[in-house]
Amino acid sequence: MLRTRVTEMLGVAIPILQAPMSWVSRAQLVAATSEAGGFGILEAGSGDLAAMTAEVASMADRTGNPFGVNLPLNLLRNRSIEVAGYLDVVQAAGVKVLTTSAGDPRPVLPMLKARGFRVLHVVGTLAAAQRAEEAGADGLIVEGSEGGGFKQPGGASTMVLLPLVTSNTDLPVVAAGGVVDGVSMAAAFALGAEGVQMGTALVASQESPVHANYKAALVAAAETDTVLLNENTKPTIRALRTAHSLALCGQVVTLAEFDRADDLYRDGDMDASLAGAGQSVGRIDRIRPVAEILADTIAEFHATVARLAASCAATGART
Questions:
Q1: Neighbour tally for 234: CB within 10 Å
Q2: Rounded to two decimals, what is the model's pTM?
Q3: Are 105 and 135 in contact (CB under 8 A)?
Q4: Coil, helix or strand at residue 18
């Protein structure tokens, strides 16, 4: 166990959140994360309300541990999805914590708080963090530009953004972007985080519902094998380097690029759509169970902190 304000808020044993990745963060992955002591988060970005509702309902048969749901605000609005009706289903399933992303949380936070939800908002800038805090968010997920999927246009890396935000807020902060193991988790805590969110590392897990071709591509990729599309416009997307994503470099990419997402994520056609991946992909060398990934991360985190403490103590003794 590792107790922080994040674990207390989420009601979990270890402060590791599973990123709510569109087409990926379905019930089997979410439940595996929660069963391993972390905090699984169901995605809603793929936009199929019936499927989303079914995924929430299926969680009762998969885990009795806490899990959350993500609301990607602009994506839901663009698809004309009625948030209030979906929240009825979410609340009936016993969900107590939501994450909000991809949009301004201020219009929806009063409704979410009135329903009794705790809310962590995903931010990619200091200004967004300050707005979310002023609006009443309970915590922040600070997402660096090296992470996969939808990003902040012109965003900063975790190494720059995380200490900037943590030094300017009193809210509990979860670090996202580049976190793949215990060493990177320890680095995030050194910069002020009280929890971490892992995405790419869990796409490459046994319980991830994506096709084996996608997982194999993640294992084979180097740290340079991602591309950043629409770098200064929305939607900025970091995806795995493929023939398809390379052909889109320099073009204006729209959400229509995900119209054939199922052909990639479910059927393994790597040129059908964009395969989200962060730069941490270069540190993934095999497919493992979620429970093993989380257990090894926590063990390495503690070992790294102990090693640093011992090294600093030894250096101090010599001076």
A1: 14
A2: 0.93
A3: yes
A4: strand
